[in-house]
Amino acid sequence: MSNSNTENKYEVSIQCAKNALGDAFIETGIKDVGVLSLEPLSVFVWCDEVYIVKSSNEGYACILDLNGNHVSNRWYWHFQGEHNVKIGEISQAQMKKFINKH
């Protein structure tokens, strides 16, 4: 896949994050991190779905969807060998809102 096709593919995900999170989404560029872990507050794409890292360590993470709903306490970074692609970050204030709503 060419670089421009890859960027176009993730532009849809970036727009989705912008629509869901508004000003709380901070675009950081498209970075394929492979199966490596991501930092808390990272917004990333995995298998064409957009997720947010609530907390993380080297092996797994707690993941939310774009509405702040819990997806997994044990999101394994290397699952099925699929790459994680970071597209941005969420503000600390928005993460606190997500945490406080549950």
Description:
It is a single chain. By secondary structure, the chain is α+β, with helices and mostly antiparallel strands. The protein is 27% helix and 41% strand. It contains 2 helices and 6 strands. It has a 6-stranded antiparallel beta sheet. The chain is globular and about 40 Å long. The relative contact order is 0.24.
Provide a concise account of the structure shown.
Strand 4 and strand 5 form a beta hairpin. A six-stranded antiparallel beta sheet has the order 1-6-2-3-4-5. The chain has two helices and six strands.
Structural class: alpha+beta
End-to-end gap: 40 Å
Listing every helix as H and every strand as E from the N terminus to the C terminus, the arrangement reads HEEEEEEH
Global geometry:
globular
Enumerate the strands of the largest sheet in spatial order, edge to edge or round the barrel.
1-6-2-3-4-5
Report Rg.
13 Å
* Tally of strands: 6
The proportion of residues forming helix, as a percent range, comes to 25-40%
Mean pLDDT comes to: 91
Note the main sheet: 6 strands, antiparallel
User: DSSP helix count?
Assistant: 2
Percent of residues in β-strands: 35-45%
Which spans have pLDDT < 50 for at least 5 consecutive residues? none
